[in-house]
Write a structure and sequence with these properties.
This protein is an all-alpha fold. The protein folds into two domains: about 1-45; about 50-105, no CATH class. The chain is built from four helices and no strands. The protein has helices at about 1-45, 50-65, 70-85, 95-105. α2 (about 50-65) packs antiparallel against α3 (about 70-85).
Amino acid sequence: MKDMLRGFGAVAVVFAVLFGFAYYMYAVTSFFKPKYTALDNQVFKESQQYNDGMLRDLQNLQLEYINGDQGKKDSIRAVVLHRFSVYPEDKLTPDLRNFYNSLKAGK
């Protein structure tokens, strides 16, 4: 009987250690995961591919706005203002910066 209780005690200790380790790993992961994600996001936004792609998209929106009729310009304006607002102005080319500023001014 004592051997059986000792066996159950050993199993309970093993489960407690495993649970403690799993909880520790969960706590460590939940603490550091947002930091890793923020760093990954920062690296992505500083990458050459992201910046080239974003500038190309903004130039395409500028061309669509310039070549569109008045109804199309009104519908594209909101999209253009949103897309430009999430991209740093200091990384814009001068013509895109002027285009964005003219749309913000309502021209």
